[in-house]
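Lab notebook, entry 640. We have the chain sequence and a SMILES string for 1-deoxy-D-xylulose-5-phosphate, and the next step in the workflow is to get a structural model of the bound complex before anyone spends time on docking refinements. Request logged below.

Task: model protein plus 1-deoxy-D-xylulose-5-phosphate, output structure tokens.
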Amino acid sequence: MSFPLLQTIDSPADLRRLPRAQLKQLADELRAYVLESVSKTGGHLGSNLGTVELTVALHYVFNTPEDRLVWDVGHQTYPHKVLTGRRDRMPGLRQLGGISGFPRRDESEYDTFGTGHSSTSISAAHGMAMAAKIKGEDRKAVAIIGDGAMTAGMAFEALNNAGVAHGGLMGDVLVILNDNDMSISPPVGALNKYLARLMSGSFYAAAREGAKSVLKNTPLYEFARRFEEHTKGMVVPGTIFEEFGFNYVGPIDGHDLDSLIPTLENLRDRGGPQFLHVVTKKGAGYKLAEADPVKYHAASGKFDPAVGFVKSATPAKPTFTQIFGEWLCDMAEQDPRLVGITPAMREGSGMVEFHKRFPTRYHDVGIAEQHSVTFAAGLACEGLKPVVAIYSTFLQRAYDQLVHDVALQNLDVLFALDRAGLVGADGATHAGNYDIAFTRCIPLMSVLTPADENECRQALYTGYQHVGPVTVRYPRGAGVGTAIEKDMQAWPWGKGEIRRESGKAQGRAGAPRIAILAFGTVLYPALQAAEQLDATVANMRFVKPLDVDLVRQLAESHDAFVTVEEGCIMGGAGSAVMEALQAMGLNLPVLQLGLPDQFVEHGDPAKLMAQCGLDAAGIAQSILQRFGARPELLRPAANE
Ligand SMILES: Cc1ncc(C[n+]2csc(CCOP(=O)(O)OP(=O)(O)O)c2C)c(N)n1
Ligand SMILES: CC(=O)[C@@H](O)[C@H](O)COP(=O)(O)O
Ligand SMILES: [Mg+2]
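Result returned:
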């Protein structure tokens, strides 16, 4: 395909030089380019196709980058990236060394705020708008937030704050609600119903009907009082956004440049908090995506636009997500107390089947991680057994609820932490690198790290049987493909196991006798490395409670330890082992392998694991570098 006009646009300044009449062609070419590009690289699709006209209009009307655009979640910014000088970098999208799938301040001056986690845009834009006022700069700040992202409490915290003056200063912030009546799944909650009424115009109709029904059959004096009350409400019904102090405009068609451009020009020139409600279609312009916006939210890889996403002929190994989804249904069959909760990630967390089979025990609470955790706590108070399916990275948003509402009260909640560790294409914003460190330090919390698909099922069952707060963490994608035992057996609580014994006798000449303590799916590269080094390997299974008996047993029979985890080294499982050794007065050298104290960027997961030294070669190399032939590590054998 050719994109003659788009090829001439290397910056928004080029776009603003175009005749207004050419913008429609530019939008059409931009949409075709994004579709073609994503069909080659994979990535988010529906939301990008839905924001093409809005993106063109915003960069046409606002003096970007001086005027700030803040894209909420940021998964809809491919058109923005193409128009802001990165058209020719799209082939490297979400790949190692390529551009991110989300806005990044260090990638472009037009990416005014890094996003990825939802519902932060209004807060950031308000900060930028207030900074402009404080510094006396004439700039606008625009937050573009979806109807899904609008369901998060943080968005309302920001509205509540941005809608009023502070010390006499009022920020010039424009909030654009991009309402496509979709989250990743169909939207949930009362806000969605409210927005639907605003969109349908029934809002006004309801106000009129209400007025008429009240005014008839009432005594005259009552008539006057009520008429005055209702005509006030009827003429300009206060939308919720106006109650927050914003001037509300809309809903308008978010695909019609003839509506968007004059409206944005008008709002740009007005000061103070402005709220524009635009209605778009997720997947606009691509029939397959329009018809199934859930499926076409994102493409996992290449696809032929003419055919769309097709399932691969050979059944792939089950993913950990699928293992969880299956376990959840099996467990729900056995235990009527089970309630499944997701904060707006039904598909990603593998709960579609559970929703179908157990609709009364399924809760999608919207993008509301904090609420999801404390809602679970409330259920647990009443003797139910809530299971919160939540990505490791998104649990970060509900940390206080985890500590204060669940652990402090020792409530019986199971957290199924999907996407634990590196996630690959989504990169640093979505990596689940920190959950071992931030959960194990909470009193009464238990932390399980299954090593493969079968262990995932057994760990979920073990955690579910335990009364109290538990996290079970597992990575994005599939494991090594172990057979799944349908029978669920609870593990001995807090116990690991030795998977491989070193053949070396301790204390003999040559390389020291090494014990590798693996936590989670890194067990398998550790086993491969151990074959090369003839090391012992323990599958620890629990970070908390740690199997201190096994730690002691290994420490007393080996010369050195290696701990391995797909989590941050700082404060992680290896730290737990070090603490246990110190507490037991056992002083042997420990090499901690895990994720480094830096953000790991987007890319192919296997390449990222190798980059972090967590593949078999990396583990073996680290061990050899640290312990190689180190006779000083050898302790004299008992009879020498
Ligand atoms: C805190 C947080 N929770 C969950 C997600 C996962 N997520 C990404 S996009 C999305 C739906 C967003 O819906 P909306 O804002 O309406 O944007 P649309 O996809 O409709 O354009 C969700 C739940 C996230 N990025 N951040
Ligand atoms: C934008 C966003 O946050 C989600 O779409 C996320 O990218 C989903 O991640 P998975 O692809 O791992 O489900
Ligand atoms: Mg939406």
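Notes for the group: Residues 6-288 form a domain with the Rossmann fold fold (CATH 3.40.50.970). Worth checking against the assay data. The longest strand covers residues 560-568.
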